[in-house]
Design brief:
Elements lengths: L18 H22 L17 H4 L11 E10 L7 E11 L4 E11 L4 E15 L6 E15 L30 E18 L2 E10 L18 E11 L4 E12 L2 E13 L10 E10 L3 E10 L2 E10 L4 H4 L2 E12 L17
Antiparallel strand pairs: 1-2, 1-14, 2-3, 3-4, 4-5, 5-6, 6-7, 7-8, 8-9, 9-10, 10-11, 11-12, 12-13, 13-14
Length: 359
């Protein structure tokens, strides 16, 4: 969580929908609108595995966001439970830790996903590195770049499947042999990715960010058998902004576009942040967040969040609106995100001097 610092509002007093207010909002939202219109021109097909709170999972979103916070070390945990009304629930867990060295930022990602009756598991461990470059001395324009490298393992439980040969003509007997020549039930590969981000940062509460990323650049073989099945490159672009409406409210629009092989996904929406009484602009930070997002042709997402000093907790729920509604009954998935930032203050060095005897 980035702490708030003293700022000065640039907006004059008056109604919210005044011409001056509209000018500022237009300048902030125009790049996001253009990118959104571009994304809608692509073919939209939602994937089952995704994060609704993508802004609260920064290292998974883009390795260039490693170390992008005020503090020493950041811990983030994400959990998603979905499609419980359709089949066995698809459960995804993600844990990250990142920090800063003198010249480079580092991060570690641990990812676990389990899906379907066959309990198809995907486990990844990744290392991310990033570097930020100040394009101007006032730090208003910042360009960041990052890379990630990791190990990916996929595993399936073949004993959980049923086959027609297990039907003896009268009843189904799961104890009968399947006669399927399974060669292996797991596969391990190396994965590579990279990303970049541009930040236009006027103040802690007023900024714009644009990023792009590419993952699975080496297209690892994820087939369990002799046939080679390459893992498609996942292309991703994202944008987010923050705009102070007044001393108590911030407007936070964001969007994400992902394309992997024949699948693509667009998410767009916005949140509002309300600073609670007793929250100042230095070190005491207390705020509530609420937002609405749309995953095109798949779901509507409601989000809630709470920030308290170095802690953040976010909740979201996907309301399914796709063709799966007859089976899902509009129930998509529940997701939670938790973040904690650790600060380490260096002790002040005090030098003692011995005074001469004649003083």
């Amino acid at each position: 969580m980035v702490k708030s610092f003293p700022y000065r509002l640039l907006l004059p007093n008056g109604p919210f929908f005044s011409c001056v207010y509209f000018k500022y909002i237009y300048e902030v939202l125009r790049p996001l609108t253009l990118l959104f219109v571009f994304c809608l021109g692509m073919i939209i097909k939602a994937q089952d595995i995704h994060w609704s709170q993508f802004n609260d999972n920064p290292l998974f979103l883009n390795p260039a966001k490693t170390g992008e916070f005020q503090g020493s070390t950041r811990f983030i945990g994400n959990f998603k439970d979905q499609w419980r009304s359709v089949s066995l629930p698809f459960q995804t867990f993600n844990a990250t830790i990142d920090g800063k060295l003198k010249r480079i930022n580092y991060g570690i990602i641990l990812f676990h996903d389990q899906a379907g009756d066959g309990k198809l598991k995907t486990i990844e461990a990744q290392l991310t590195l990033s570097k930020a470059f100040k394009l101007t001395q006032d730090s208003i324009h910042i360009l960041s770049g990052g890379v990630n490298v990791g190990i990916n393992q996929r595993q399936v439980n073949t004993d959980a499947f049923y086959f027609d040969v297990q039907y003896n003509g009268y009843i189904f007997n799961p104890l009968l042999p399947t006669n399927e020549p399974f060669q292996t039930d797991r596969k391990t590969n190396l994965t590579l990715g990279t990303g970049a981000q541009y930040t236009y940062h006027l103040s802690p509460r007023k900024y714009l960010k644009f990023g792009i990323g590419a993952f699975n650049l080496n297209q690892p073989n994820q087939g369990f058998y002799q046939d080679e099945i390459k893992r498609d490159v996942r292309w991703l672009s994202h944008a987010a902004g923050s705009y102070p409406i007044n001393q108590q409210w911030d407007f936070l629009p964001s969007l994400q576009f992902t394309k992997q092989g024949t699948y693509s996904e667009v998410m767009v929406g916005a949140s509002a942040r309300y600073y609670l009484p007793g929250s100042d602009n230095t070190y005491i930070h207390k705020a509530l967040l609420a937002g609405v997002f749309v995953r095109a042709k798949d779901a509507q997402i409601l989000t809630l969040g709470c920030e308290y000093k170095d802690w953040f907790v976010g909740l979201s729920y996907d309301i399914n609106t796709s063709k799966l509604v007859p089976a899902s009954k509009a129930r998509g998935g529940f997701e939670i995100a938790v973040r904690y930032i650790l600060y380490r203050f260096k002790p002040k060095r005090i030098e003692h001097r011995v005074c001469p005897d004649f003083i």
